[in-house]
Amino acid sequence: MSAARAAREIPLFPLLDRPAENVRAMDFDAIWNMADELRDVLPIFSLTEEERRELVTHMHVRRFRAGEVVYHRGDPPGDTFVVYHGLAKSFLHDEEGRELIIALHGRGDFFGALSLFEDGPRESTVQALIPTTVLQITRADAVHVIERNPRAMHFMFERFAAGIHQLAGMLEGIVFLDVSGRLARYLVELERLDGVALTQDDMAAAIGASRETVNKTLADFERRGLIKVERRQVQILDEPALRKEIRA
User: What is the DSSP letter of 47?
Assistant: First the structure.
C-alpha cells in the first residue's frame, strides 16, 4: 500500500486541518495506527508492550505546509522526526547563499535523529517540499527507551550508517561524475519517492549544478528517450540506459 493511500484510509487526518499543530497523547490510538503503518521502518515493534506504549504516548503528529521550515541549521538539539506522508529536504547554504540539498526525506525516513546522541546544534535546515505529515518523537523519552533496548539502539545506528552511505555517495558523485552522471544518479534515486515532483531548482541544488544546466540535461535525456518530463514530474523510460550515464 502506498503512503498516499494509507494517509487517506487512516481517520486521523480530520484532526490535522490546522497546519503544524500537534495532535497530543489524547489521540493515542490514531498515532498508534500511524506507527503501525510504518512498522517496516520504525523500531517500535522490537520493543516490549510497555515500552511501545510509553514511546507512542510521547509521540506527536505534525503537519507542515509546502515550504514550511521544520527547523533551522544552528537551532538547539531537539526532537526526532519520521516522515509518514510527504517529502522534506535537508539543506545547507554556502557563503554566497547558494543552496545544497544534502538529503531528501520521504515516507519512513528519519531526520533530526542525531539529537538523540549529541547535544550539538542542528546540522542543517529541514523544510517541507510538499504538504508533509511527520511523527515527532520527543527527544528525552526516545533516549530513555532506546537506552534500555539494545535492538532499538542497533536500529538507530543502522539508520545513521545508511545516512552516511548516502552522503558518501553524494560526495563521490560531485567529485567523480559530470553533470549528466550526477543528474542520472539522482533521478534513479528519486524512484523510491514514488514519482514525487521536484522543481529544477531543487534538482540543481541536489547535484551542485545550475538550473540552466539541469534544464538542458533533462531535455537531452528526454530527446534520447531515457525519460519523459511532464510539468514537474520526471518518468524514467529506460533505466538501464540512464544508469549507463552514471558510469560514463
Answer: S
